[in-house]
Amino acid sequence: MAAILPMRTAAEMALIERYHAEKATLPGAAEARAAAFERFEKAGLPSKRVESWHYTDLRNLLREAPPVAGETSALGALEFDDLPHRLVIANGRLVDGKVSAGVEMLPLAVALKAGRAALGVAMGEAIDSVVDLNTALCREGLFLKVTGDATLHLAFAEYVEDRRSVMPRIIVEVAPGVSFTLIESHTGPNGVAYQKNAVVELLIGEGAKVEHIRLNAGGDKALMLSTLAAKIGTEAELSSLNFTTGGEISRHQSFITYAGENAKLRLNGATILKGRQHADNTLVVDHAVPHGESRELFRSVIDGEAQGVFQGKIIVRPHAQKTDGQMASNALLLSDEAAMSNKPELEIFADDVVCAHGATCGALDDSQLFYLMARGLPRVEAEALLVEAFIDEALEAVTHDGVREALAARVSDWMRARKES
Amino acid sequence: MLEIKNLHVEIDGKKILNGLTLTVKAGEVAAIMGPNGSGKSTLSYVIAGKEDYEITEGEILLNGQSVLEMEPNERAAAGLFLAFQYPLEIPGVATMTFLKAAMNAQRKARGEEELTPGDFMKRVREAAAKLGINPDMLKRPLNVGFSGGEKKRMEILQMSLLDPSFCILDETDSGLDIDALRIVAEGVNALRGPSRGMLVITHYQRLLDHIVPDTVHVMAKGRIVKSGGKELALELEKNGYADYVEAA
Amino acid sequence: MAAVKETVETVKTIDVDQYKYGFVTDIESELAPKGLNEDIVRYISAKKDEPEWLLNWRLEAFRRWLTMTEPTWSRCHYPPIDFQDLHYYAAPKKTPGPKSLDEVDPQLLETYAKLGIPLREQEILAGVQTSKVAVDAVFDSVSVVTTFKEELKKAGVIFCSISEAVKDHPELVQKYLGTVVPTTDNFYATLNSAVFSDGSFVYIPPGVRCPMELSTYFRINEQKTGQFERTLIIADKGAYVSYLEGCTAPKRDENQLHAAVVELIALDDAEIKYSTVQNWYPGDSEGKGGIYNFVTKRGDCRGARSKISWTQVETGSAITWKYPSCILRGEGSSGEFYSIAISNGYQQVDSGTKMIHLGKNTTSKILAKGIAAGKSDNTYRGQVSAHRKATGARNFTNCDSLLIGQECGAHTIPYIESKNSSAVFEHEATTSKIADDQLFYCMQRGLDEEEAVALIVNGFVKEVLQQLPMEFAVEAQKLIAISLEGSVG
């Protein structure tokens, strides 16, 4: 029986065409781009038949491939404006800001052409169509080399009035022993169906400590695809939080590989959804070496007809003994039409390990609500209190007080808006 | 009965026992006292045959026979019993099932008939009654959810049922209140006899008020630094270990 | 049926089961030629003297099957199966077995001895040629069967082969067959629908509590069930039945591919408890041979407050691909899945369950214990879903894996989908190994390493074992120890 190849969608054809048209002018990394393109051309956009995309049918959701967003000089309000070092990236292009001492910055094109950076180096064994697409086509982005302790905010802002796409690529190399905090915020206009496919690659040197915070406050019609690929060196630590409140369709993927022993990972997620939003948090934690520790905590609050997805996979490779992996995904459904899908996976090939996962899904606890109301709180306040506390646990990973408070404030605002509507 | 000759033991390249020599005769109750970190628990594990320890030198003889090449279960069948400082929990395995498996395994190893269910039940009930162990506890999974006192009593119950020729009690008093301590000590004393040797490992003298030893040995830095009669324990209680640690 | 006649028939079919050892191949006309086409389907149906509707049902399934491709999503890997290189029908027939136990593979006998199976039963299981002694032995069990049948008849319970049911109770079969696992369901279920050989049929009338555990064990010598077994169990309103499938003794079977279908239907307030012990040939120490077991088992809690409970002890087969499921349709219905899956050697297990909550206030519980040893791969794959209308649905899932040795793999893949805010789903999973300290403790008390491992593993699976009927549980416990032999040291 001959395998039936699905018809190419308009979006797939446009993307393939774009690669052929732009191939000659894409900056550097020609081999990596060609390989990524070849995989993409073969696989197409992932549909729900692809196991890792089962709950987010991108083939169906990404109906067309709009043109790349042009340059812009508009600068609106940005997130976290009290942070000292900020780079403003509008429509994928660096337009403002500076970095502190200890951070070297190059435009992606320059770094790729000079061979200072490569594409896909932090992906480990992971292969993903969305990353491949970015690898094949990315032009805009940055290469950052961090050699001294630093905090940096990358403020991504889209200023588009029509359907446009943005595909930034950020490659960060953190030198051994350095402490680095990287904050990403993503904002954009409501009512515009723009598409974003952002990839951040993190190479974390021995003993370095990286804290990564990502805020997805994209426009309410946006398709927000994002990937964090990280390789953690010996005794290094990575803590990453993805906070999703924006976008119509969002998918954040984390591909984490342990490159050295005794490394630690904390991967958290906080998701608040309403209306018809759909948000997917997918992660693959690959314990390729012994003595790794990982902790994942994902909290989702889902209202309206929104849909939450959590897919977490912990892989323990043969010989990755003494791995300690604990993963939890908890969801609160606030309305009858809300939905949540959880798929926490363990894939284990070493015997001397301690791995566990837990997943829960349900409504707010009636007895807790009752208790608070019996103490005099009106229902909406009691609900808000419980929801905020629920999300707070996932925010605990954020050490920067200002950032954590700003994120917590978003949760209370969101609950207040819910009450008023 | 038990002879330890010039025992040197390392774990992960770190020396724990450093030429320890000790003899306990049949019918003798010997106490080993020493400060934390002197290697007391290591000694009990090495005698019982726990992996992870490397014996670089020396010899351990039980009834004249070397045990170093024997598996832990072979040592048990040869009559050695270790009452653990921290008895292990085995979820899902009823205490009764465990006792039966252990008793019959040892009997089989010694070429004896397995116990009939009736005989087994009778022995367990009698021994449990003596130690004030509620029969319901025997239906529960081994040591799971047991209090510290219950776990220690369970160790002594096993000791009496398995009828070993040589017993090691590793910090049996830890985690026990005074009443529990008395019950446990009575259980141990009932098992004293002319053909059975015992090695009582403890940090504090108070256990030795209840289980009165024939000999007392002071351990420091991985070897015996002083030996004497039961009065040595009282002296230690008064003056502490500092002098011995320095001398060692 | 008179006891005498039945005895004769039973005796005749004793050596029907063909075993690998001492079995002399004797191609008779009763064996369909290799390959699968519409003629073969017609041939099977004709041989079984089936009514037209059933033939059409088979043909429809067969045509559907032609358009399907083998599923490849499981974590099991095996060379492609040539479906045209198989016999799809072999009639029950007389073939000479071994003349006495002396001719039977000593390894098989050793296992029987460990399981504590009486000598006479051993002869039956090993397919020893009927001797005077064996006839007597069988006579005992036949009288047991006869007594049972009479008692069941008194209660109005129908317990027979599905072929008999097609003849004697066509209205029931036609009403329920394929309503839980439709002919279009999946590649293997569709294949089964086209060529199923035989299996059990059970019907419990309203309000009847089946007076005994029904077991294939009692039917084992009655007929050949073959590699494409089909079972249909219906518990009418308020009825209760407990059904045991399989046997702890390793039955030799020369058919490598098994694709059974089991359908359970529970109407209002009915309860079905289905227990399986599967211990088919897992292949040799190098991973050669062994049964491929692709089973579709599904229960439909069609009525309000109905209950279906699956319990399985899976220790055999080279490949196990099996997800006994519950469709919780009736309001207040409940489903349970208790599983022990042990893999050793080169075995591959991809097994779990589906709990589909459709009705209000439906509840489900999943307790899965996987033990991987040797070079095996052991995957739990389970789905729990609540649909929009499943208000008040509850699920609790616990899956624990234990790894023994450094060359095996244990995987947990749950799919948890809730579309109802009042549904409460809880899922827990752990993976660990037997703690060295636990092993040392047991060995200090005199157990050798294998005994200690078996003891700890039995503790690990205790909660599931407790779900099995008593006599089955005892056998299963021994089976676990045997399955893990050679996994340590």
Reconstruct the topology from this structure:
The complex is a heterotrimer of chains A (421), B (248) and C (489).
Chain A: H1 10-22, H2 30-43, H3 58-61, E1 86-90, E2 93-97, E3 103-107, H4 108-113, H5 129-137, E4 141-146, E5 150-157, E6 165-166, E7 169-174, E8 179-187, E9 195-204, E10 209-217, E11 223-232, E12 237-244, E13 249-258, E14 264-273, E15 278-287, E16 293-302, E17 307-316, E18 324-333, E19 339-348, E20 354-362, H6 366-374, H7 379-395, H8 401-420
Chain B: E1 2-11, E2 14-24, E3 29-33, H1 40-48, E4 54-62, E5 65-66, H2 72-77, E6 80-83, H3 95-109, H4 117-130, H5 148-162, E7 166-170, H6 178-190, E8 197-202, H7 206-210, E9 215-220, E10 223-228, H8 231-239, H9 242-247
Parallel strand pairs in B: 3-8, 3-9, 6-7, 7-8
Antiparallel strand pairs in B: 1-2, 1-4, 4-5, 9-10
Chain C: H1 3-14, H2 38-47, H3 52-66, H4 106-115, H5 119-125, H6 132-155, E1 158-161, H7 162-168, H8 170-176, H9 187-195, E2 200-204, E3 214-215, E4 230-235, E5 240-246, E6 257-258, E7 261-266, E8 271-278, E9 292-301, E10 307-314, E11 319-322, E12 325-328, E13 334-343, E14 348-357, E15 363-372, E16 377-386, E17 394-403, E18 409-418, E19 424-433, H10 436-444, H11 449-460, H12 462-465, H13 470-483
Parallel strand pairs in C: 2-4, 3-5, 4-7, 5-8, 6-9, 7-9, 8-10, 9-11, 9-12, 10-13, 11-14, 12-14, 13-15, 14-16, 15-17, 16-18, 17-19
Antiparallel strand pairs in C: 1-2
Give a verbal description of the structure.
The complex is a heterotrimer of chains A (421), B (248) and C (489). Chain A has one domain (10-420). Chain A contains 8 helices and 20 strands. Chain A has helices at residues 10-22, 30-43, 58-61, 108-113, 129-137, 366-374, 379-395, 401-420, and strands at residues 86-90, 93-97, 103-107, 141-146, 150-157, 165-166, 169-174, 179-187, 195-204, 209-217, 223-232, 237-244, 249-258, 264-273, 278-287, 293-302, 307-316, 324-333, 339-348, 354-362. In chain A, the strands form 2 sheets. In chain A, strands 2-1-5-8-10-12-14-16-18-20 form a 10-stranded mixed sheet, with helices on one face. Helix content of chain B is 37%, strand content 26%. In chain B, a hairpin with a 2-residue loop joins strand 1 (2-11) and strand 2. Chain B has helices spanning 40-48, 72-77, 95-109, 117-130, 148-162, 178-190, 206-210, 231-239, 242-247; strands spanning 2-11, 14-24, 29-33, 54-62, 65-66, 80-83, 166-170, 197-202, 215-220, 223-228. Helix content of chain C is 29%, strand content 28%. The model of chain C is unreliable at 1-29, 129-144 and 218-225 (pLDDT under 50). Chain C is globular and about 65 Å long. Chain C contains 13 helices and 19 strands. Chain C is of the alpha/beta class and 489 residues long. In chain C, the strands form 2 sheets. In chain C, strands 1, 2, 4, 6, 7, 9, 11, 12, 14, 16 and 18 form an 11-stranded mixed sheet that branches. Chain C has an 8-stranded parallel sheet with strand order 3-5-8-10-13-15-17-19. Classes of the chains: A alpha/beta (421), B alpha/beta (248), C alpha/beta (489). Chains in contact: A-C, B-C. Chains A and C meet through strand 19 and strand 20 of A and strand 18 and strand 19 of C. Strand 19 (339-348) of chain A pairs antiparallel with strand 18 (409-418) of chain C.
